[in-house]
Write a structure and sequence with these properties.
The chain is 16% helix and 41% strand. By secondary structure, it is of the alpha/beta class. The radius of gyration is 15 Å and the shape is globular.
Amino acid sequence: MIARTVQPTTTAAPPSFRVGDERLIKLTPSAAGKVTSLLSRQGRPNGVLRVAVVGGGCSGLQYKMDLQDGPANRDFLVETAGVRVVVDPKSALYVTGSELDYVDALDGGFKVKNPNAATSCSCGESFSA
């Protein structure tokens, strides 16, 4: 099972999201450590990492990452390496099976190993599917 729908029980209209697993996306221990550190620094110890795919970049599509308080409606929520990651349904089509790594070097940063990418640019910031 890649995902199941979850609707938390509260009086306000909470977001309806689906719980996925690491077949959607997973983080390496290095990436998980960096995300945890960033969430803590922002005062969001229970926050999530949003991974999205948007149009742009030299190959047509690029990754967008953001720290947020929690999942939004229709998101997939994946817990991987102790970090909660959310992906919207459209982006899930492009990132399924991906691994997010973090390299602490001069030309480092977050790197996505995406089996769905047909081509990628030399800088590694964009891809085509």
